[in-house]
């Protein structure tokens, strides 16, 4: 759907609703003007005068505006005054009818939607900055939009709920975020949102309906096969269909939630690093949560509960399941099951007295908060992990003071934000998950030494002419460059900048935690973590050949023709002597 087609739709609606009022006005004016021209005027010098068509039209024009300049060109006869009275009343009625029809048109929902679509498509078409199409503005969608705004990346939003789009207008985003109330699975709305726009970087399907998400992904793949698609799915059937599509990334919020829970329990140092990377409130790097070892109680065995149970078992933890509808056939043999709601009696039966911790993971916030109260009363020492389903209940969960609160919409938004802003970050976390904990602790020590107490600042650079012209020219001329010299501080050489290189992506392969001697090549993508100031200093090295030469060789070359000539002359004298 292009702006032209939207404009045509607006024009059709206007003509449809205003056709009859316009005809009424035209008829009243035509009859009035013709009648005024035919009515006999006053007798002047023995001849009856008549008003010509122009004077009649002029008279009707200023009469309609209630200006009242007087009777022109001569005083009216009785017949003309009688006709004027008739025309005034019919004109007022016709104008009231036309104005009422116009007000009804402006309030018509089809007209409003067509105008919104026209303005929305025009904004998207005129946008030259990179943007993301966000389909679905629920909890996860609004949190993702906030994260994109914090990174100054634009988004175009589609949602079927008009109230959510209205709420978009009062958000204080740092970049424009146009939104449209529309069915995101309709191709015309995807086209209006810029699915074929050259500045569109990705499409994210985050509606609460897996069928709609699948349809959005399929439509986007047909409309723009090169566009990256990120799709949320909680269904195994839909996930299989999505993974069969090329260039589609599937995000399962239940899997992500379960992964975070299991890492918080079994790999607390890795959970701490990941939480620090995504900017979780109150997280200090190198200070992971202290989770006790022992048996765990899992309250709730739905789709998320099954994922949590699977991940905990993979780490060798014993789990007792509390759920009134749990199917024993879905649980591995030997797992303790309590078929009941997670109240006092069920928790006692599950062994709350000597349990290391409890995970309240049902899809109802009230039940999860009630479980927390029971656990606090029965075993205050137990570690409490709780699932928060609705962002609106944030105040209640803050008051509950659980040891770990995980909101699945927030974890989903953060995972997608990492995929959009710094995809290598998640690759690094997954890579560390398969390594010994000592490697994660060593990285944490390096990051603490480089960044200190400041919040993390992640950014990526790509060694291409548009982002690193000085480096590309240097490498293409045969020079060799390693990570260590590139990250040196030109203002305090040979000290290093306050940053660490986390990964290098080259030819479809990612090299994690490269050392200082790692040789760089053109088109490499480097993920770094440091401070905003270190990024600014590194940008100077990437763009300035003199700064680059200095950090590589330690020699400050003279700049300008005169200083270069003097330096060359000095060198020649030194060689002859």
From TrEMBL:
- Where located? Cell membrane
Transmembrane parts of this sequence: 21-41, 53-70, 82-103
Q: Name one Pfam family in it.
A: Ion_trans_2
Give a yes or no for keyword Transmembrane helix in this entry. yes
Q: Which PROSITE patterns does the record associate with it?
A: RCK_N (PS51201)
Q: Does the keyword tRNA-binding apply?
A: no
Which SUPFAM superfamilies does the entry link to? NAD(P)-binding Rossmann-fold domains, Voltage-gated potassium channels
Membrane topology designation: Multi-pass membrane protein
**What name does this protein carry?**
NAD-binding protein
Q: Which organism is it from?
A: Halomonas saccharevitans
Q: What is the lineage of its organism?
A: Bacteria, Pseudomonadati, Pseudomonadota, Gammaproteobacteria, Oceanospirillales
């Amino acid at each position: 759907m292009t702006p032209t087609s939207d404009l045509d739709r607006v024009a059709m609606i206007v003509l449809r609703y205003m056709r009859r009022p316009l005809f009424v006005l035209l008829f009243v004016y035509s009859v009035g003007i013709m009648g005024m021209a035919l009515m006999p005027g006053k007798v002047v010098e023995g001849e009856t005068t008549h008003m010509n068509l122009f004077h009649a039209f002029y008279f009707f024009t200023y009469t309609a505006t209630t200006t009242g300049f007087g009777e022109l060109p001569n005083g009216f006869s009785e017949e003309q005054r009688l006709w004027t009275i008739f025309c005034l009343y019919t004109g007022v009625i016709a104008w009231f009818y036309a104005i009422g029809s116009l007000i009804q048109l402006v309030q018509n929902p089809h007209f409003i939607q067509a105008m919104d679509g026209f303005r929305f498509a025009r904004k998207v078409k005129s946008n030259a900055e990179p943007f993301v199409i966000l389909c679905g503005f629920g909890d996860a969608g609004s949190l993702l939009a906030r994260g994109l705004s914090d990174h100054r990346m634009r988004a175009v939003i589609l949602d079927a709920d008009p109230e959510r789009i209205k709420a978009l207008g009062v958000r204080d985003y740092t970049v424009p975020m146009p939104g449209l109330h529309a069915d995101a699975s309709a191709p015309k709305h995807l086209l209006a949102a810029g699915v074929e726009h050259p500045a569109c970087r990705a499409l994210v399907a985050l509606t609460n309906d897996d069928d709609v998400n699948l349809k959005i992904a399929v439509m986007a793949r047909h409309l723009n096969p090169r566009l990256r698609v990120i799709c949320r799915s909680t269904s195994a059937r839909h996930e299989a269909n999505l993974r069969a599509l090329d260039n589609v990334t599937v995000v399962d919020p239940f899997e992500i939630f379960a992964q975070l829970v299991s890492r918080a329990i079994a790999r607390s140092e890795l959970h701490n690093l990941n939480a620090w990377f995504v900017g979780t409130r109150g997280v200090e790097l190198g200070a992971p949560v202290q989770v006790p070892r022992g048996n765990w109680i899992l309250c709730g065995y739905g789709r998320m509960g099954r994922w949590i149970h699977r991940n905990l078992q993979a780490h060798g933890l014993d789990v007792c399941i509390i759920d009134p509808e749990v199917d024993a056939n879905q649980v591995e043999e030997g797992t303790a099951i309590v078929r009941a709601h997670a109240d006092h009696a069920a928790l006692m039966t599950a062994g709350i007295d000597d349990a290391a911790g409890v995970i309240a993971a049902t899809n109802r916030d009230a039940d999860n908060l009630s479980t927390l109260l029971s656990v606090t009363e029965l075993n205050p020492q137990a570690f409490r992990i709780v699932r928060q389903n609705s962002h609106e209940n944030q105040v209640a969960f803050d008051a509950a003071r659980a040891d770990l609160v995980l909101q699945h919409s927030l974890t989903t938004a953060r995972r997608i934000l990492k995929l959009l802003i710094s995809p290598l970050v998640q690759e690094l976390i997954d890579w560390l998950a398969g390594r010994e904990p000592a490697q994660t602790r060593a990285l944490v020590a390096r990051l603490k030494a480089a960044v200190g107490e400041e919040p993390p600042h992640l950014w990526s650079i790509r060694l291409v002419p548009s982002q690193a012209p000085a480096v590309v020219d240097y490498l293409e001329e045969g020079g060799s460059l390693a990570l260590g010299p590139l990250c040196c501080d030109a203002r305090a050489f040979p000290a290093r900048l306050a940053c660490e290189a986390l990964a290098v992506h080259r030819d479809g392969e990612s090299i994690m935690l490269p050392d200082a001697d790692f040789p760089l090549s053109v088109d490499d993508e480097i993920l770094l973590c440091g401070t905003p100031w270190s990024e600014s200093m590194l940008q100077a090295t990437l763009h300035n050949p003199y700064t680059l030469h200095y950090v590589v060789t330690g020699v400050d070359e003279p700049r300008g023709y005169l200083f270069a000539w003097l330096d060359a002359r000095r060198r020649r004298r030194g060689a002859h002597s």
